[in-house]
Amino acid sequence: MPNVTPGRPGLSGLNALSPPEAERELLSCCAAPAFARRVAGARPFADAATLGAAVREAVRGLSWPEVLEALSAHPRIGDRPAGEAREASWSRAEQSGTAGADRKVLAGLAAGNAEYERRFGHVYLVCATGLSAPEMLDRLRDRLGNDEDAERSVVREELAEIAALRALKLAKLAELAAGDAPGGGGRGGGGGETESGGSGGPGAHGRGDGDREGM
């Protein structure tokens, strides 16, 4: 078992969740129940690197039907999901490189998405951290040349990176929620807002933070 320092910022809250709570929260990182079970069962995490490694390993261990289950929770690149749910907010932030993009690029993404889905049978997934809309489009066009096996490998790695970045966000939310709980002694006392902009703990699935991480 890892040597966990009590109260380590960003991890003690996630480590302290009950297994059902942890599994429920981890579904916002990757919407495959098998992933959530594996990562919840790998706790406690000593540091961010250990968390990231566990998340990536869990994604890489998913069957292809489980990967497809996770993909079903991701919007198309270029679509900006509405709503206050954490996953929708995270997706908007993650795809912020498409905000204000040239119309031709957005049209190219729409056409490319349709062609990709016809070819591979699922949405085009890319970890969009720091990518501009033209870069997302270039990667889409490059990947249309992959055969099915090669593309499945790429999808798995993209999903693993997205899940790892989201897990770090989740850990921060869980830490803030633990600090705001009665007797938690957290920053700013109880009842405050989480960094996601919504009140309450991670289970509220409130508005996500605005970091440009993942897709």
UniProtKB/TrEMBL annotation:
Residues 181-205 have a biased composition (Gly residues). Signal peptide: none annotated. Its EC number is 4.1.1.97. Residues 76-89, 206-215 have a biased composition (Basic and acidic residues). Residues 15-167 form the Oxo-4-hydroxy-4-carboxy-5-ureidoimidazoline decarboxylase domain. Pathway: Purine metabolism; urate degradation; (S)-allantoin from urate: step 3/3. The keyword Lyase applies. One of its GO terms (biological process) is purine nucleobase metabolic process. Residues 75-97, 178-215 are annotated as: Disordered. Keywords: Decarboxylase, Lyase, Purine metabolism. It holds the Pfam family OHCU_decarbox. InterPro entries: OHCU_decarboxylase, OHCU_decarboxylase-2, OHCU_decarboxylase_sf. GO terms for molecular function: 2-oxo-4-hydroxy-4-carboxy-5-ureidoimidazoline decarboxylase activity. It catalyses: 5-hydroxy-2-oxo-4-ureido-2,5-dihydro-1H-imidazole-5-carboxylate + H(+) = (S)-allantoin + CO2. NCBIfam families: PRK13798.1, UraD_2. This is 2-oxo-4-hydroxy-4-carboxy-5-ureidoimidazoline decarboxylase. It comes from Sphaerisporangium melleum. The lineage of its organism: Bacteria, Bacillati, Actinomycetota, Actinomycetes, Streptosporangiales.
